[in-house]
Amino acid sequence: MELRRYAALVWKWLWLLALGALLGGGASYGVSRSLAPTYQASATLLVTQATTPAGPSYNDLLGAERLARTYAQVLTSRPVLLGAAATLQLPASYEQLQQLVSVEIVRDTQLLIVSAQHTDPEVAARLANAVAAEFIRQNEQSQLARLQSSRGSLDGQIQQLGQAIADKTAQLEAQRGQPASAERDARVAALQRELADLEQNYAMLLRNADEIRLQQARAINSVSVVDPALPPERPARPNVPLNTLLGALLGLLLGSGAALLVEHLDDTLRTPARVEERLGLPTLGVVARFAHDASPAGALPVLDPATPRPDRQHAQRAQAAEAYRALRLSLRFSSLERPVRSLAVTSSMPSEGKTTTAANLAVALAQGGARVILVDADLRRPSLHRLFGLEQREGLTSLLLEADDSAVPPRLPLQPTSVPGLSLLASGPIPPNPSALLASARLQRVLDWLRAEANLVVLDSPPLLAVSDPLAVAACTDGVILVLDAERASSRAAASALLALQRAQAHVLGVVLNKLSPRAGGSYGAYYADYTRPDTPGPDQGAAPGVPTLAARADERG
């Protein structure tokens, strides 16, 4: 059920959703086309960490990945970017270069992708390659500086040890030139031992120096370009198709939000579900808008000939006629436990279609075989006599103004209509005080006279919130139908009208949603389709098996 409700909502606001998507996509397309194209070129770097003589290990690979993350930050540092710009003679500040150059780490690899953006594809490729080359140059210089510092310290030690060997050698030669003696021989032997130790240390230091130089050369971290940047053929920005799609999606989202907001703020009773939810009343019928001319019978589609015509106007009127016949069927089922002999048709506000509904319902009931009297109880703006092309000289006011309340009038001013079984009691002369006249006790006596002449009396009463007349009429009848304009009637006004009827102790049978537009109907097309089933010919079309009709129940009551 919720899915059908959402589908109806989408169908209702489909124009807004399409408009939002069209405007969003069109605006995004226009802005994207107006922007200058930006090209992006990328160079791929391979980071290799120093390895041990035994070859690379798992720790070496992890170290290389961490080193790649470090290098990714260094690549966009001030010295590297400004050095690359100086090489290209590109007049740009460090902040501008940061907007042009980006670095991406390829996950689980030792690769770095240096990307540069520019309105000129050639400049973009040169800038990416220049940043990579400048980083490699500065990285090699930094490591060579550390190696030279280590070598300088080692060479200093070797030089000091060589000087010490030369000094010992000179001392030894000087002692050997002295006259022979035991003391001289002891000093010569000691100097020879010291000289031998120094020479041994010197030789060891030379070997160690060679090994250290070899290890340092092997321990240098290297960065190499594996894929240089090339001038791109297509711009990276703006991506017109993607931007257009995103703009359309954003417009669709805004349109959906606007539709939901309007639905949330909408207080009208557009669907039977809303009527049930907000009023707690069943919907007896749903009547869509139908076209009609200014002729008296234009508002009575139930009188149209059954011969089908392909034009849209006839289809609308045929649908409305079937809706009124379906209302007749709903009225039968709603009055099974409590038979209805008199029925008031009213509305919450003027111009909601209560007179048209009352007239068409009376015609449909008469076409179903019942004897019906249609009463124009709207003593302020009577109009039923015009619908049927009859006179208004005598009618309800004539009966209400009779002096003798106890006697049955010799003649009821009923006028036969073109529909067999349907008579009209017009309003009669318009009185100066309709409310007082309808509130008199004589109205009940008049209704008793009319019930004796027909199976069902249908009264067209004024709007509830406009005047107090319909409350007096509703209190005297067996049931009340509330007609609501599906596009204009608000929940608040309908609730106020219902509260007034409940205070008058009227028996409200249900609601007729009138003037429903096809667009607002949405998924209720299926609902209307159920209403447009052809009736079975006969005096009581559409009656369920075993269910007594209004005419039969009226005959049973006498």
Your description of this structure?
This protein has 558 residues and is α/β, with parallel strands linked by helices. It has 3 domains: 2-35 and 238-264, no CATH class; 39-227, Bacterial polysaccharide co-polymerase-like (2-Layer Sandwich); 266-557, P-loop containing nucleotide triphosphate hydrolases (Rossmann fold), CATH 3.40.50.300. Helix content is 53%, strand content 13%. It contains 20 helices and 12 strands. The protein has helices spanning 2-12, 14-34, 58-74, 78-88, 94-100, 121-176, 182-218, 240-265, 272-279, 312-334, 354-367, 384-387, 396-400, 434-438, 442-453, 469-476, 491-503, 518-521, 525-531, 550-557; strands at 39-48, 101-105, 111-118, 222-227, 283-288, 342-347, 372-376, 415-416, 422-425, 456-460, 479-485, 508-516. The strands form 2 sheets. Strands 5-12-11-6-10-7-9-8 form an 8-stranded mixed β-sheet, with helices on both faces. Helix 10 (312-334) packs across helix 11. The relative contact order is 0.11. Residues 521-558 have low confidence and may be disordered.
